[in-house]
Amino acid sequence: LRTIAIDAYISALIVNSGCISLVVKLLRVGSSDVQAEMAGLLWNLAYKSSTNQEAIAELGGIKALVMLLSSFNEEAQKNAAGALRNLAYRSARNKKAVAQADGI
Hints:
mainly alpha
């Protein structure tokens, strides 16, 4: 899912079907491998899409991703950092949210 989320059509299907809330929940309660995959999915969904960036932020994705920066799973850390970078891209609101969540 993470790999195909790069496609704009697939990305829109994921977001419009309401899956973002489930993905954010899995960031908090999934195994470390699941968390890494979900962070990677959000990384791709947030890539140059202000619509997706807003949806992820509104559903608590930023705080959940910041928590993963402290994970023992290096893949989860890397993917969370990438997702946060994409969420902050051209979004002053998300940059502020990352800072408020102690992400910098």
